[in-house]
Amino acid sequence: MEEFHFQNCGAILIGFIVSIVLIRLSYVLYWSGRPIRTASQRVSTLIVLGSGGHTAEMLSIVNALEKERFVPRIYIAAGTDNMSLQKARVLEESLIQKGEISSNKNMKEAAYFKQIYRSREVGQSYLTSIYTTLVAILHALWLMLQFRPEVIICNGPGTCIPICLVAFIFKVVGVRWSSIFYIESIARVKRLSLSGFLLYKLHLADQFYAQWPQLQMEYQKAHYVGCLM
User: Which residue from 89, 95, 87, 47 is spatially nearest to 67, judged by alpha carbons?
Assistant: First the structure.
């Protein structure tokens, strides 16, 4: 009889916890994508870079940002991608030279450059990628705890998935509310990239943008913004 009582209490407790999680999840999904008021004029911004065209597109987007508002900027690239971070450093140095960053703020205060463990290398088997993805999620967790960005901007590299997943979990548990802005790569005309597809279907992105009208017609929750390059 006593054992039955404990089992009953355990079931009630589990049901209560599940209900709380579902209510909080519904709250996060409802408010995701809606304007969040902030008292601060500065918004810490995490920018995910990817090899090749991803970085060129992303740096073009960064160029269009209000530099004094979206600061500090935290640039993240895969551990095997040194070129992207180098390009980001060159951009930040040029902003100082052009005076777009105020003289009382040096690059170290305005920008950070970090690498994250890559969840899956090109050609890597899906079986071994389970382990590397878990490692990447743990690394993303550490970076998110370190910087706690208010805004995350990404445009397709697989590196963004662990970061966006951790950011969404942080929203649900109340650690930090990071608004995720996903801009699908200009190379994607009719179909989403794998990263874009996952963020779209799992409702992880607060705002989802497409650069081609054909893509927006296929994925109607996306916003068509034209070509950004």
Answer: 95
How high is the mean pLDDT of the chain? 85
- Is the preceding omega at residue 162 within 30 degrees of 0, hence cis? no
The encoded tokens of residue 154 equal: 């990404």
60-75: buried (b, 16+ CB within 10 Å) or exposed (e) per residue?
A: ebbeebebeebbbbbb
86-129: pLDDT as tens digits: 999 999 999 888 876 665 555 557 899 999 988 776 667 767 77
Residue at token pair 């963004």: 160
Annotate 13-77 with DSSP letters as a single string: HHHHHHHHHHHHHHHHHHHTTS----S-S---EEEE--TTHHHHHHHHHHHHS-TTTS-SEEEEE
DSSP one-letter code for 34: S
Say how far apart CA 31 and CA 175 lie, in whole Å. Answer: 16
Instruction: Provide the 10 A C-beta neighbour count for residue 171.
Output: 23
Report the C-alpha gap between 63 and 26 in whole angstroms: 35
User: In the predicted model, is pLDDT for residue 5 greater than 60?
Assistant: no
Q: Which two tokens stand for residue 141?
A: 């967790």
* CA atoms of 30 and 53, how far apart (whole Å): 33
Classify 181 as helix, strand or coil: strand
H helix or E strand, kind and range, residue 130: helix 126-147
Output the six-digit token pair for 103: 């003289």
pTM of the full predicted structure?
Answer: 0.86
Q: Are 207 and 182 within 8 A, CB to CB?
A: yes
Sheet holding 223-224, edge to edge: 111-116, 73-78, 45-48, 151-154, 179-183, 207-210, 223-224
Res 223: pLDDT? 92
